[in-house]
Amino acid sequence: MIRIVLAEDQAMLRSALEALLGLEPGLEVVGAAGDGETAWRELQRHAPDLLVTDIEMPGLTGLELAARIQRHGLATKVVIVTTFARAGYLRRALDAGVHGYLLKDAPAGELADALRRVHAGGRAIDPQLALEAWSEADPLTDRERQVLRLAGEGHAANDIAGRLNLSHGTVRNYLSEAIGKLGAGNRIEAYRLARQKGWL
Questions:
Q1: H or E segment at 82?
Q2: Same structural domain for residues 115 and 31?
Q3: Is the pLDDT of residue 156 over 80?
Q4: Mean of the pLDDT values across residues 145-149?
Q5: Do residue 104 and residue 125 come from a single domain?
Q6: CA-to-CA distance for 14 and 35, rounded, in angstroms?
Q7: pLDDT tens digit string along 106-128?
Q8: Are 60 and 92 within one domain?
Q9: What range does the domain containing 180 cover?
Q10: Contacts of residue 114, Cβ cutoff 8 Å, sequence gap at least 6
């Protein structure tokens, strides 16, 4: 039996996925969560074979969860199921040790097959996205990405500095670097561009 923890912040979709996977022979959903921190606790509690997670969630994103699993050396393999058909997200997912990356509009049977393939040691990556993933490299550093994400969410430089334990000048430098690398006119445009590319 392949034991699965499911992390999806939309309750209706989470219930539907849980029911769907429960109908598949050899698959068992042992835990479900609506945010990243709860998902992390479920992973520690159940030590499942697979984590099926969305990218954007409250608390921890699916990518942050994958990176934490990798950092702690857990045996759980991660499969991302998302609406984000963005090459930048796929590249970051692969860097975080993710074994599967599927889009939510894929047929249900494909998801079950992908989970079995990942459990058996393979990978399951949306083929079109895999091609696009290597067409354009992410120019941002992790710190530039953090600062730009907070700026795009409306936080002032002083607030960002306090949150990330940086000086005000350092925050301005990171923002300036990110804006320059993206060829944007200002921080909001840079944030929008980076999100479109899947780099945030």
A1: strand 77-82
A2: yes
A3: yes
A4: 92
A5: yes
A6: 11
A7: 887 889 999 999 999 999 988 77
A8: yes
A9: 142-197
A10: 79, 100, 102, 124
Distance CA 6, CA 49 (A): 11
Query: How far apart are the C-alpha atoms of 134 and 144, rounded to whole Å?
Result: 21
Residues 16 and 94 in one domain: yes
Pairing of strands 124-125, 100-103: parallel
For residue range 4-20, what is the model confidence (pLDDT) as tens digits?
999 999 999 999 999 99
Cα separations in angstroms, 181 against 134, 147, 167, 189: 18, 14, 21, 12
Number of domains comprising the chain: 2
Residues 100 and 59 in one domain: yes
Candidate from 14-28, 33-47, 126-140, 170-184 with smallest mean pLDDT: 126-140
54 and 113 co-located in one domain: yes
Q: Fill in the amino acid letter for 83.
A: T
- Does the pTM exceed 0.90? no
- Rounded CA-CA distance 87/72 in Å is 26
Measured CA to CA, the distance from residue 100 to residue 52 in angstroms comes to: 9
Contacts for 40 with CB less than 8 Å, ≥ 6 apart: 60, 65, 68
CATH of the domain at 8: 3.40.50.2300
- 98/21 same-domain check: yes
Please, are residues 69 and 48 in contact by the beta-carbon 8 Å criterion?
no
Tell me how far apart the alpha carbons of residues 172 and 95 are, in angstroms, rounded to a whole number. Answer: 27
